[in-house]
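Translate structure to sequence.
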């Protein structure tokens, strides 16, 4: 099944060609500088044949990383509309770097070298990429390998399986203090967009992401129970979001004044699509003279206010629809502060006048 041939070039260089044959499949041939390497490779391939792994090894040698990326972009990314544009760019970067390599020749070490190159490379008009961003590049490629293994049968093991993630800093927590919140809400009330104030109040009250708020439809709102429901969430789950207090009052008012022919809570000017609030929000932030604040930080406001009002990390995770508690750890210091205040009030009540 396996054979090794010694070869001598015209320049006198010696190499060893190892070849493994299996009936019904093309032969596998690799050339090595050392005979021991050729023998080991041939022995490994024969072991693959005995254990039924030969076909997958041959397949991994016959498909390139570039082919994998092209098929993934064409067949898989259309199912991921939220991340299609970003991941297309990420995957094409890997294709440019490793596209000519056979899948069987892509190793964890090779990916790590390219990952580190990406980390050091300068972005156009900006500094180096963050470790979090580089991890997203690796994650996109990792999922492509997973699909190639599970659905296409192109290889057996992902080379990224043994690759460690780069350490990431704890997520940003920027929330509005009482004065900032008042100034922002006042600026939103004065905005030319009639929907800016309502959508900001909902963002603070519920912690819902901007994309989900902008695309809300009346069919997903239950005013009797005080809920709205998100179908297309980041986690792919259907999520019920409670409406209470000011947020519920605002949605009831929007419902009363709505155009019955329009399905959106926050329609665009034509009424044929939902609102894009980005420009109006940025203008309001400038007018309120608030530094370093983005719409997504309203979600952090919700998490921070929940923590400061005594919610546990698990409760915060449920409200913000995080699947794990890891993402909520950024609010833990606020929860700890609240717990300390509770303990202090208890001690004051029990031992307040005790001088001993």
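Result:
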């Amino acid at each position: 099944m396996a054979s090794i041939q010694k070869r001598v070039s015209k320049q006198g260089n010696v190499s060893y060609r190892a070849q493994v044959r299996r009936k019904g499949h093309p032969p596998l041939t690799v050339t090595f500088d050392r005979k021991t390497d050729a023998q080991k490779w041939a022995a490994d391939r024969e072991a693959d044949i005995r254990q039924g792994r030969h076909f997958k090894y041959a397949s991994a040698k016959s498909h390139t990383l570039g082919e994998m990326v092209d098929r993934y972009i064409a067949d898989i990314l259309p199912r991921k509309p939220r991340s299609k544009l970003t991941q297309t760019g990420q995957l094409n970067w890997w294709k440019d770097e490793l596209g000519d390599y056979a899948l069987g020749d892509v190793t964890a070490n090779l990916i790590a070298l390219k990952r580190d190159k990406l980390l050091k490379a300068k972005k156009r008009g900006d500094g180096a990429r963050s470790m979090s961003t580089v991890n997203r590049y690796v994650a996109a490629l990792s999922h492509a390998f997973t699909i190639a293994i599970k659905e296409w049968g192109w290889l057996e093991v992902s080379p990224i399986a043994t690759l460690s993630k780069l350490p990431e800093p704890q997520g940003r927590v920027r929330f509005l203090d009482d004065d900032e919140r008042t100034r922002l809400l006042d600026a939103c009330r004065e905005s030319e967009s009639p929907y800016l104030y309502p959508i900001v109040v909902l963002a603070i009250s519920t912690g819902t992401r901007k994309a989900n708020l902008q695309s809300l439809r009346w069919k997903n709102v239950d005013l009797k129970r005080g809920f709205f429901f998100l179908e297309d969430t980041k986690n792919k789950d259907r999520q019920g979001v409670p409406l209470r207090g000011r947020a519920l009052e605002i949605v009831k008012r929007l419902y009363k004044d709505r155009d019955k022919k329009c399905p959106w809570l926050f329609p665009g000017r034509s009424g044929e699509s939902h609102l894009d609030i980005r420009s109006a929000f940025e203008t309001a932030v400038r007018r309120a003279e608030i530094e370093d604040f983005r719409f997504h930080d309203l979600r952090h406001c919700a998490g921070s206010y929940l923590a400061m009002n005594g919610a546990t990390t698990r409760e915060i995770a449920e409200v913000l629809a995080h699947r794990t508690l890891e993402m909520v750890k950024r609010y833990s210091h606020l929860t700890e502060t609240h717990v300390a205040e509770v303990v202090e009030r208890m001690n004051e009540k029990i031992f307040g006048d005790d001088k001993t």
